[in-house]
Amino acid sequence: MVTDMTTVAQVRLTRVDDEADLRAWFEVGAAAVAHDRPGDPPRSWAGLVSELTRPWPGRDVERWLARSDGDAVAALRLALPNRDNLSSALVECEVAPAQRRRGLGRALLAHAADRARTQGRTRLIVEVRTGGPGDALMRALGARPALRDQRRRLPLPPADPAALAAMEAAAVAASPGHTLVGWTGTTPDDHLDDIARLAAQMSTDTPLDDLHSEPETYDADRVREADAASVGHGMVPLVTAARVGVDGPLVAYTTVFHRAETPWHASQGDTLVESAHRGHRLGVRVKLANLARLQAHAPQVTAVDTWNADSNPWMVSINEAMGFRPYDAWTEWELDLV
Questions:
Q1: What is the dihedral of CA 228, 231, 235, 238, to 10 degrees?
Q2: What angle do CA 270, 266, 33 make, to 5 degrees?
Q3: What is the pLDDT at residue 132?
Q4: Tens of pLDDT along 78-95?
Q5: pLDDT score at 2
Q6: For the whole prediction, is pTM greater than 0.90?
Q7: 3 state SS of 316
Q8: Can you say whether the dihedral through the CA atoms of 34, 37, 39, 44 is positive or negative?
């Protein structure tokens, strides 16, 4: 029960534990996305249901629903890392559009903080759209902006395919000692160890500014779990990697995800080049090859979204050369619990 609230009367937060509450929780979030970001792909009910039976590896998730007079008014998602970063809790809050400016966001965050403390967490990490009401709330609560991101969107088909072809030719010429390998779906067994190594490096090499984040540990089993979760949630991973020679280890990779129920949209995942192999335009090369893989797999895609930290000009320059353009900005805030 949420108490000591002056702007919300008789609001009860209950943990989602049945299908009716799960559907209400989902619909609050879906309505918020449709209202705030109408150009985004809609939330996936099938993906949410599958997440319950095949959760993303390394996180426990709690879902809480706020009701007022029997009506669902707000939804809280609290993710608790269980393998790495055990001092943090990740929070997503959604308030039904008609129920805003009543203190519900503050109430959800207070509940998340209480739950996180019981799990020994010392900070909340909350990502909000920059410039929206979430920014003002986070400042009022004493949170600090830790990482600023920008989402960019690539319209398809490409506006200038000749420019992309020239970029690709230059990248191939700059990396004669490397060849490409790719796959659609789960990671082939012979690449599991290399992808695990690269994924672990991704957790340390990505610019994080002031965000508290510890290195993540990956092995072949964790890669298998992540692949199974992606496929189980209705997402098809498309991967292109670069290797040394024709049979050497993988030293760069990039991933794009496509969901069949949202045929027009795809999301860019990780892109990493090992430090010893940088300077050969491998980032450009794998991203362009993977874009071609995506277009062959799902030619109906008309938009690809990617997120980059403002402090990552190297990847931003590659994405903008490919045709990605700023779409919106986000800030990850940290709120100390001690």
A1: 80
A2: 105
A3: 81
A4: 999 999 999 999 999 999
A5: 41
A6: yes
A7: helix
A8: negative
First to last CA, the chain: 23
pLDDT band at 278 (very low <50, low <70, confident <90, very high): very high
The residue behind tokens 């403002």 is 310
| CB contact at 8 A, 337 and 117 | yes
H helices present in 181-302, as ranges: 192-205, 220-232, 282-297
pLDDT of res. 38? 96
At 80, list the tokens: 């608790």
Tell me the torsion sign for CA atoms 229, 235, 241, 246. Answer: positive
Q: What is the CA radius of gyration of the chain?
A: 21
Q: Report residue 8's pLDDT band, with 50, 70 and 90 as the boundaries.
A: low
**Cβ burial, residue 199 (10 Å; 0-12/13-18/19+):** buried
Planar angle of CA 37, 210, 215, nearest 5 degrees: 95
Q: Of the candidates 152, 183, 176, which has an alpha carbon nearest to the alpha carbon of residue 320?
A: 152
**Of the ranges 82-91, 128-137, 259-268, which one carries the lowest mean pLDDT score?**
128-137
Contact status, residue 255 vs residue 237, Cβ threshold 8 Å: yes
